[in-house]
Amino acid sequence: MTLAWILFAIYLLGTAYLGWLGHRKTDDFGSFAIGKGDLSPVQVGVTLAAATASAATFIINPGFVYVDGLAGFMHLGISVYLGFVTMLCVLSFKFRRIGEAAGALTIPDWIGKRYGSKDFSLYFAVINLLAVAFVVLLVGGISIVMQKLLGVSNVVALVITLVFVTGYVLYGGTYAHVFTNMFQGFLMIIVSALVLWSGLKLYLEGGDITAVLQAKDANLLAWVNPESKLFNDWFSTYVAGFLIGGALVCQPHILTKALYVKSDKAVLRYILVFSVVFLLFSLLLLAGFWAHVAVPPEALMDATTGAFRQDLVMTVYLQQVFPDWLFTIVSVVLLAAAMSTLDGLLVGISTITANDLVLNIFSRGKSARNPKEQMRLAMRAGHLVLIIMAVAVFLVALYPPKLLGIFGQVGVYGLVLAAVPPLLAGVLYQTPNLRLVWAMSIVALTIHFGLFFFGEQLFPTSTLAFANPGLTAAFAIIFSVFPTLIGHQFLKKSEVKN
Fold first, then answer.
1. How does DSSP assign 264-318, residue by residue?
2. Which stretches within 103-153 are classed as H helix?
3. Mean pLDDT within 352-374
4. Distances from the Cα of 108 to the Cαs of 119, 290, 316, 339, 417, in angstroms?
């Protein structure tokens, strides 16, 4: 416990110092939001990988693989990875060029300027508040590890996390996010190699792990798990994973990384760096298999309720396979992994709320202000939003939802689904149609939330896994993106005829 506190204190001090360096480079709201375009592709690539591979990847998702087996790994690991990288390549280059020309700072800002509509930008500023659900997931994951590592209560863990991360983001903005994520990202790379080595060691020392899994439950090695509530058919497991992986690029702290650099060449380089590093992180979900061999089932039971806790799988696995001193080091890095995504989200949400919600409202009519006053107001609003959000997340995380991973996915999927039609149309078409993409954005939200909450009642004879938010999101993508693309082709032909 003493070693844990020492290492954690060193981590806090190092991160705080990097936050201070970020503060020195932040001199206005623009640099707070996206920097000054002076970041290298390696910095952006590692930062993006660290921000994408969050508490879900390192802490929560191995539990789904433990329960659902190969189907869970193929959905959450490989399918999502392939979809993510594909969409990143499709959107990033033109998104950067259009955003740079328009002076966009956020995704709602980009959308509003691309479509010439402040109302559309305001709509997305409100929708982006759904990202708070993902913040709860991250904070909850951090709390789980911190309680095990430092021996503190949930309340203390939440206070430390929210005060510290909110503090350095409030102080240094995007530069603090990038500098700290570089530090956290390289720590995560080292730990990923250690964890993957632990799995290889189990194979070398323990014989055929696949035989152990087969003996426990043959469905753990099935490409589709018929007993799973989430991955019980090919569509839910593979198509839904690929589609939602692509949609996740539209998160507020992901696609805007393209605005951190000044050329398409730099975009290509950071995508290559990201692709390699994020693949390494995605392979950590294999720990869900290894836990069946290394972890006794009783170790995954809640001490208070006696209920199975799948969100403990990764933490308990590491505790079993590593000596205490190495488990302590690895656990500190797991905290870093979660905080690396949390700070990126906080920067994105606070910037969007300030720039696209507060300024959007105050820049209208009689309350319009000059540009300097607007930037000062935006900076103050961004700071205030961070504080309010920290308090709100603390209150929700005091009594976290049963499955943190599902809770976070439902909210963040809604956020990204709304953004996919306008972003794709804005990148692929010269004159995208505002009414069409706005309508399809609403359709995507309606289908996703409607099927997730009411799918089983609406389709009682269906075998589809409506409890899997990736499935409901996939249907939302299919019935919003394809009509968007086809509709624009039809409108284009109509314009030519006229």
1. HHHHHHHHHHHHHHHHHHHGGGGHHHHHHHHS-GGGGB-TTT--B-GGGHHHHHH
2. 107-115, 118-127, 132-150
3. 66
4. 10, 42, 40, 24, 13
For the chain, helix, strand, coil in percent to 5 are 85, 0, 15
pLDDT higher than threshold 50 for residue 496: no
Q: 70-79, 134-143, 169-178: which range is least confident on average? A: 169-178
Residue whose structure tokens are 């991973």: 405
301, β-bridge pairs: 308
CB 285 within 8 A of CB 65: yes
- How long is the chain? 498
For the chain, percent of residues with pLDDT exceeding 90: 18
The pLDDT value recorded for residue 401 is: 61
Residue 241's beta-bridge partner residues? none
CA angle 66, 69, 75 (to 5 degrees): 110
Structure tokens, 43: 């910095």
Please state the pTM of the whole predicted model: 0.82
Neighbour-count burial for 395-420, b at 16+ CB within 10 Å, e otherwise: ebbeebbebbbbbbbbbbbbbbbbbb
Rounded Cα–Cα distance for residues 436 and 122 (Å) = 17
CA distances from 474 to 25, 184, 389, 450, 452 (A): 41, 32, 29, 13, 11
Sequence-ordered list of residues with C-beta below 8 angstroms from that of 486, at least 6 positions apart, any chain: none
Give the C-alpha separation, 307 to 304, whole Å: 8
Q: pLDDT tier at 498 (50, 70, 90 boundaries)?
A: very low
Q: What is the token pair recorded at 290?
A: 């290894």
Amino acid, res. 392? A
In degrees, rounded to 5, the angle at the alpha carbon of residue 122 between the alpha carbons of residues 346 and 385 is 30
Domains and CATH numbers, the chain: 2-405 (1.20.1730.10)
Instruction: State the Cα–Cα distance between residues 491 and 165, nearest whole angstrom.
Output: 47
Q: How many Å apart are CA 362 and CA 358, to the nearest integer?
A: 6
The burial of 14, by beta-carbon neighbours within 10 Å (0-12 exposed, 13-18 middle, 19 or more buried), is given as middle
CB 192 within 8 A of CB 280: yes
Q: Which of 444, 439, 471 is nearest to 455 (CA)?
A: 471
Give me the numbers of helices (H) and strands (E) for the chain, helices first please. Answer: 23, 0
Tell the residue number behind the tokens 């082709």, with chain if given.
489
Is residue 32 within 8 A of residue 382, CB to CB? The reply is: yes
53: its two tokens:
């591979």
First to last CA, the chain: 75
Q: Residue type for 209, please?
A: I
pLDDT at residue 206 is higher than 80:
no
